[in-house]
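Lecture notes, unit on protein representations.

Consider one protein chain, 650 amino acids long.
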Amino acid sequence: MSKEQDYSAKNIQVLEGLEAVRKRPSMYIGDTGVRGLHHLIWEVVDNSIDEALAGYCKNIKTTIEEDNSITVLDDGRGIPVDMHPKEHRSALEVVMTVLHAGGKFDKGSYKVSGGLHGVGVSCVNALSIEFEATVFRNGKIYNQKYSKGKPLEDVHEIGECGNQTGTQIHFKPDASIFEQTTIYNFETVCARLRELAYLNSGITLEITDKRNIDEATNSYHYKKFHSEGGLVEFVKYLDNGREKIIKDPIYIEKLDTDVPIQIALTYNDGYSENLISYVNNIHTIEGGTHVSGFRSALTKTLKDYAEKSKLLEKAKVDIIGDDFREGLTAVISVKVSEPQFEGQTKTKLGNSDVSGKVSSIVSLKLKEYLEEHPTEAKIIVDKVILAAQARNAAKRARELVQRKGALQVGGLPGKLADCTDKDPANCELFLVEGNSAGGTAKDARDRKYQAILPLRGKILNVEKAQEHRIYESEPIRNMFTALGVSMGTENDPKELNLTKLRYHKIIIMADADVDGSHIRTLILTFFYRYMRSLIENGYVYLALAPLYLAIRNNNFRYCWTEEDRENAINELAKDGKRDLVVIKRFKGLGEMDPEPLWDTTMDPMGRILQQVTLLDAMEADRIISLLMGEEVEPRRQFIEENAHYANLDV
């Protein structure tokens, strides 16, 4: 009998309860890597935020426990624990064990909600090896424990709580699901709680990390987020590190409608657009109808004002939509009772009616602002004209680079030592600091699949440069040409066509010192601003060169960290004669011979690579602008706050 004929009812698998979540977790939380692990916290915190949006919650406390489990406590109403009329079991158990169950589907309980896919906390339960729900309600404390989505006991009363109300969820992710890691990143959680505080003014969100002690205070790492200024404060935070060209952000809101709208925007002297959008507190990474409505209204209103005021007459250049958004920082937040998201991960809003509603209020309020603030209006229009002129200069520079690239032998830069394999999936490109290190790397490499491109000195800081200057920079032109990617289009200069990408591993290899760190940062800034899809697709890596070589007689150990060095000394001096261990500090890649460079930094069997990921694009954008931009004071403050992370022995 053929396989087709043997396909019958017995082959149809029915997954009961939360088994479907455990069977295909990525369908519900995006992936089972770092992003999916943190998504579990977002689902639980979002439930508490829903209570806050309904007006019943003011404080949300998150704790990362010593074993990397998570506890979230709010002061909302507390999940109901009485018997569910249809399920004939506690409503708490229904919420925790049934997909598409919860108060958010009852419009009398919640007008809007972030978790409208209905997976929420039940999904977290399914993917946790330990899960415990504690409810403070009606003067009583109720509790129920679960494992892998299944109740271990009935909901039961465990004490009295007086006037306290709220819900506490404690969970420990299942390591058999999250095989990559179950370790939470404190700063990643802080970033999400911070944005929730800005998006929901008046609410206090706290986080405590019991895995780490702050030596200065001898207490757990702790942060508290609270905002009264909401989106205006959010825009100021995002723009910290950039030089503003208008004094105060422009605030637009319309709350007395079926789609409440809040928008804050400002302009700086930079060259990038930084637009962050949310629907029901969900970060819509891919935008959607609310973003398109905002952009069309911004362009039309500014253009109409500029033409009416005759500010464009001297421009002598065509203005397009992108020109109106250069240097723009904006946050858009809308509340939609029945949002239609494209994709399970809710990254793009599809409700067609939202576009018109956003466009209408932006047009009205922005027109009022421009007429009431003629000085700021002229500054913005002048910025738009400058952007258009720079765009045209960049277009000419791109075309010149493309022509020069075509004239080179094989279309590749002369300094590139290419590999023989032509399958991008097998090939690696090392971007190496300096000609000396580049020469050593060429001798050390495996020519079959490893290519070397030496970069002379430090590349241009693209955060401070107009676009046409970037394409005129030889090191940057060489990177574009070597990688084989196009340099964007007129409509989107930063769009990359990765179909012709020649290497699927792009490895930045710089010295393990301050200058090397600066060079890595400059290259990463360029990739983030002009080749971001390389990072998003996981093609960019950092090579970690050793800091030390520990030697005793004919025995030696390479050391990447101070801890490695101490362990090497202990290992080589088991007889206690530590003074016989010689420590050599590597000053740069160029002073290494080809063999040790291969062994420590280039050999796939022995090297250490760090993949560059983009877990939080918003925070990455802010930090890059802060560190690489013109403003000195915010950078100084950041360095002071983070100095304890630095290795000063370089």
